[in-house]
Hints:
By secondary structure, this protein is an alpha+beta fold. The protein has helices at 3-15, 25-28, 45-57, 119-122, 128-141; strands spanning 29-36, 41-43, 61-72, 75-85, 95-106, 109-117. The chain contains five helices and six strands, in the order ααββαββββαα. A hairpin with a 2-residue loop joins β3 (61-72) and β4 (75-85). Residues 13-111 form the SnoaL-like domain. This is Nuclear transport factor 2 family protein.
Amino acid sequence: MNQQATLNKLVSFYQSLDNVSLHQLVDIYHDDIVLVDPIAEHHGLQVVETYFALILKNLHYCRFEVNECHLYNGTALLIWQMIYAHPALQRGKPLQVAGSSHLRFGGDKIIFQRDYYDMGAMLYEKIPVLSAVIRQLKKRLRP
């Protein structure tokens, strides 16, 4: 498999993310993968797989729509929308958050992934008590 094929497999994996498909991670990620997101930093394929399983366990569903995908010289950039539903957020209604991922390859597998997204838009603004406080803070910061 080459880097483009791995990238295609990653995009396909995220388009229908669930616990059943986690066995595919071994074909996408290097054993020494480092995955960084706004929640934490995860080192190693087994740790990443466990992290995904824990997150997915609490979601009704989660999938990604990849709008842009660029690969150049062992580095890739994905621009995406995450569509998810959690029973404790907005009464389980579908939610969306925009984000991007910076990827680096080690051979033909991904060895580094940093995900960028707005944790406030994803979580904090969906919790009634916090959302009111965040709205007030945003209002104060506007010119």
